[in-house]
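User: My collaborator sent over this chain with a note saying "see what the structure looks like." That's all I know about it. Can you take a look?
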Amino acid sequence: MSRRRYAHLLGLGAITLLTVAALQRQTITIKGSDTMVILTQRWTEVYPHKDRVRFQVTGGGSGTGIAALINGTTDICASSRPLRPSESEQLQRKYGTRGVEVRVARDGLAVYVHRNNPVEKLTLQQVRDIFTGKITNWKQVGGPDARIILYSRENNSGTYEFFKDHVLQGQDFAPTAQHMPGTAAVVNAVAKDRWGIGYGGAAYARDIKEVAIAEAPGKPYYLPTLENVVSGRYPISRFLYFYLRERPSGELKAFIDWVLSDDGQRVVTEVGYYPIRLLRDTKRP
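Assistant: Without extra context I'll predict from the sequence alone. Here is the result:
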């Protein structure tokens, strides 16, 4: 056999082996929270065992991800809110388990204003009154005489539900609130609107200003920094979750174990969110 022919056959063999290896890789699907998309994408990009697994990451909102988990069309639901009892019951009826919850990161839910807005701090009550329409002018909270423009997430968003439950205390948003398809859209709108105000994950806070928040009048004001969120001083903080139908095994377990490891949690801080525990070498923002 000629050397050229031999080299050709070796090349074909190598391509075949690569193709077989690619086909043998397990696919893991992750669907849900738009807030978490940039984090889950980054995790899947730097995961060290991509020779064994490939990922499909999509957003759509926490509610969309939970529905996909219940319908069996995603392996992992990324959610910025806990499962509701009714959702756990659906999982129980269909799969014999109420779902498996994994806390994968922390988030400080920031309140955004335009960079040139002079308002630097608000109490939770003031934020509640702004988004429910009781306060409609910036002069009512120490700012200039200008109408407040509200930007919110859409109602299938876990961020929307968390904000409504924990900040608005179940009250409805003002009818003037403009509901945006994602946190990036909220940030973009506020960055262009001098009198706008919005809310969303701290990792998205680019080209806008975060407002310091106090739990009540007379209480200290805090920004959503690493120390303030992890310590619980910042009053609008939450966990970010992975949900599964059952206890993970194999490549799925290996990926989640890595996400919870120091290396995986460092990715959390690189993206702009906060680890579930303080790491010794975590840089303070």
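A starting point for your reply to your collaborator: The chain is about 40% helix and 20% strand.
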